[in-house]
Amino acid sequence: MTSVLDSILMQNNFSTPEIRAIWSDENKISKQLKVKAALAKVEGELGVIPETAAKKIVEKAKVENFDLLSLQKESAEKRHSLIALIHALQSAVGAEEGEFVHYGVTTQDIVDTSIMLQTKEAYNIIKNHSEKLIRTLAILTKEYRSTIMMGRTHGIHAIPITFGFKLAIWLDELLRNQRRLDQLLDNGVFVGSISGAVGTYAAFAGRGIEIEKLTLSELNLSVPNISWQPSRDRFSEFATALGIYSGTLGKIGRELFTLMKTEINEIHEPFRKGEVGSSTMPQKRNPALIEGLASLTQPVFSDVSLMLQSMLIDGERDAIHWRNEWVVLPEITSYLDAQIVNLTYILSELDVNVEQMRKNLEIQGILPYSERIMFELGKVIGKQTAHELVYQAAMTSIENHEDFIHLLYKNSQISSNFSREEVNSWTIPENNIGESLSKVDHILSQVNI
């Protein structure tokens, strides 16, 4: 075992079965054969190769016809990633028709097109799982739309928000990530390549552009404007979109981690009977799922950086940089999909401690309402003057543990203009959430739930 993705014990923490299947050796060979079959079919229909050979190639180009260990052995001997499959397919097709296997293309064409098929498969799974996550979060947002909690800036109590407002911010970010995924299709990221040694179609006798277009149509891939063998920006765009998405999920994981701390105790991740938090402290219910969610953003960010380096191709092609793609694509799609599926489960069974949220509002008494008090006072005595008076009272209250309102009323400008009842009315949490509910409703209107 050389990777957590290969470990039976750990792989489900870092990936999903659906994504792992896509990057299996069997699926890789299957996709390479699919490209070869599509190419042969088109070339046969156009008369570029004999139609009998084309039909035989299509018939034999199925992964169950090949022994992966034999392919691995010859690939190692020849130090070439595809030559073993070419030879094996040629042998399966037969001496005469086998001469037309891999006709006109270069290895890069087959490798690039097949890995793009795998990437598109992974993309479709991620998109579907993302849609489920968005619906799950929208349902939770609607449920806790008006649940009051303390907002925090720089880790310190600020002014009240609702839990639904916090969730709606996450939801809006997820919707942007979903749009970024959609844009990958619009931007023509998922293209194939059937263009020969240096992308000029030189071996196709003037039929190359037509062959590429028809072959890629068979494979449901877009047609590039020109060779992309030395232009790897599409994979970098793909990785960057996934990296931004993972950043969102990592941020959410860190926030959930904070809210589950014992001292805050506002949420708890799902807990199943028999789950063990610690081998030595029996009482522990650790945020294991949340930590797993947050931890995967770090390797995703590293993979994005590695993928960007694959753009530094020398000349018309080299293997120094684009091999990064073979490392990054399985990892980045696996990690992100695991995050999406994990968060969907966490949110679907999240234990929200509404009572504790209310208690936490009271930790600093009415100090968090100093902003509202300042603005209300400012309507009579001026905003800057009010700020100075409220600031001085707040600092003294914090440092000397004195009653904030009592300190305010020591000032005649306040006591002569405002009653205690009036000031107290400004400290009701529900009256201090601004227009947050309207914003929550606006975000929810963008999701069908």
UniProtKB/TrEMBL annotation:
GO MF terms, alphabetically ordered: lyase activity
> Origin, by domain of life?
Bacteria
Keyword Disulfide bond carried by entry: no
- Keywords, in A-Z order: Lyase
- What Pfam families does the record tag this protein with? ADSL_C, Lyase_1
Where is the Adenylosuccinate lyase C-terminal domain positioned along the sequence?
365-444
EC nos: 4.3.2.2
NCBIfam families hit by this protein: purB
Its protein name is: Adenylosuccinate lyase
Q: Which organism is it from?
A: Streptococcus sciuri
Taxonomic placement:
Bacteria, Bacillati, Bacillota, Bacilli, Lactobacillales
